[in-house]
Amino acid sequence: MIKDNQQKFNRLHVVLDALVLIISYAAAFGLLILGNRVYSPHKQVLPAQYYFIMLVWIVPLYLFLYGLCRLYAPKRVQQSRYECANIFKANIIGTLIIILVLYLLKKHPYFREFSTRMVFYFFVVNVIAEELERNCIRYILHSMRSKGYNQKHILLIGYSRAAEGFIDRIQANPEWGYRVRGILDDNCRTGHEYKGVAVIGTTGDLEAILALNTLDEIAITLSIGEYAKLEKLVSACEKSGVHTKFIPDYNNIIPTKPYTEDLVGLPVINIRRVPLSNMLNAFVKRAMDIFGALVALALFSPVMLVITIIIKVTSPGPLIFKQERIESIRYQQVVHKIFHGCNL
After folding, report:
1. E-assigned strand segments in 69-140
2. Per-residue CA distances from 161 to 168, 203, 223, 252 (Å)
């Protein structure tokens, strides 16, 4: 089963990451030695053993941070840019922790003489090495899955727009390694196909299919009118231990990443998220508006001065035009513009 292979792969991944960390650290030490010989030939560097003893806690720390940043989560549908961002985030946190340790223990002669350039070199080299390692693994896995290996067998429950959209995306991205075994639906006749994926039975056949233990995932793709069955289906899937995901049939109503609130244990999904309702977001936007306006005013004030003089000399009427604009449902705003025209 895929879940057993995933555990083995994650262990192998941890070992590879540990090796990359050690190699990156050694490369950083090499860059430190080379830099000192070129730019500071008279400066002494701590012996190698004093630097490499730090790996005893640096390697476990970084592996923990990688797990915390979800770098060992399944990557079948994860976009590479998110993984790159998580690698950068984990290394930033790790670097800050190393600097903090060196600062707190700077009274000790060993930590006082520890080169901060070494920390910087390690950060740069390790980020690049991790990116290369992850991209190589991603390429190998995508190549294997495109050829039919390392497939994840999945069953859809419910024939709907969500089911069709899921099948479309699976077939457009064979490197994800998903194989849809069929669809269970109570309203569509058995044998009906969509792009080669057939309806193989009804939802009443679910428990018998789960008992065969041949599936890696269940995707519930019920139409909106069938959501009354959802609780019973989820209970059956959870009882069997198979991984279950829910693909809503109302994806045209809510955004891809909806904003969810916790109302004392009751999840509330917002149909439309208004970022400016958050005080921090509103403050940041206002600060950027003011800063941008001041910069633009400083840059274009000479040009605006020339234009206003030309308008005043060549045209009758007021120079400034005042207008009320509705910025949102909540408030109106008065704007002032340089007006070129007759007296209103």
Report:
1. none
2. 10, 18, 7, 10
Q: Which residues on adjacent β-strands are paired with residue 198? A: 193
Residue/partner pairs of 279-286 with CB below 8 Å, 24 or more apart:
none
Strand, coil or helix: 323: strand
pLDDT in tens, 150-199: 788 899 999 999 899 999 998 888 878 888 999 999 988 899 999 999 99
Give 197: exposed, middle or buried? Use CB within 10 Å, 0-12, 13-18, 19+: buried
Cβ within 8 Å of residue 203, ≥6 positions away = 157, 158, 184, 185, 186, 229, 233
Question: Which tokens hold the place of 53?
Answer: 């003893």
Helices (H), 40-79: 48-52, 55-68
Name the helix (H) or strand (E) containing 198: strand 197-201
- Indicate the SS3 state at residue 130: helix
DSSP-derived 3-state class of residue 215: coil
Q: Is the pTM of this model over 0.85?
A: no
DSSP string, 242-286: -EEEE--TTTTTS-SS-EEEEETTEEEEESS--GGGSHHHHHHHH
Q: How far apart are CA 95 and CA 332, in angstroms?
A: 48
Report in angstroms the alpha-carbon separations of 287 from 46, 293, 342. 47, 10, 36
DSSP string, 13-28: HHHHHHHHHHHHHHHH
Tally the residues of the chain.
Answer: 344
Helix 2-39 / helix 55-68 crossing angle, nearest 10 deg:
130
